[in-house]
Amino acid sequence: MSDELEIEYAVCYGGIEAGMRVLNRDLAPRPGCVDAYHGALDEYRKKGIPVGTHGRPGPRLTKIALALILVK
User: Fold this and answer.
1) Where in the chain are the domains?
2) C-beta of residue 44 within 8 angstroms of C-beta of residue 54
């Protein structure tokens, strides 16, 4: 299952807290991904969530986190 679907599944069946645990679990082993995640978070908050998919895990996880309202 892709990381996006795992997070969505966790939110659907376990709630926001479960989704956050999966998101943090996916970010933890990827130190470079955390910076990309936060950079994309700042950008997407200003410009909106982009349409389409992104190949890099940081922006991809940011998009799903914002779409599922795991972060505000």
Assistant:
1) 3-67
2) no
Task: List the one residue out of 71, 63, 51 whose CA is nearest residue 2.
Answer: 63
What are the Cα distances from residue 10, in Å, to 14, 23, 25, 35, 38? Answer: 5, 10, 12, 24, 21
CB burial readout 31-45, b (16+ within 10 A) else e? eebeebbeebbeebe
At 8-65, the pLDDT tens digits run 999 999 999 999 999 999 998 988 899 999 999 999 999 998 887 767 888 999 999 9
The HSE-up count of residue 11 (CA atoms within 13 Å, CB side) is 18
Of 10, 19, 3, the C-alpha closest to 57 is 3
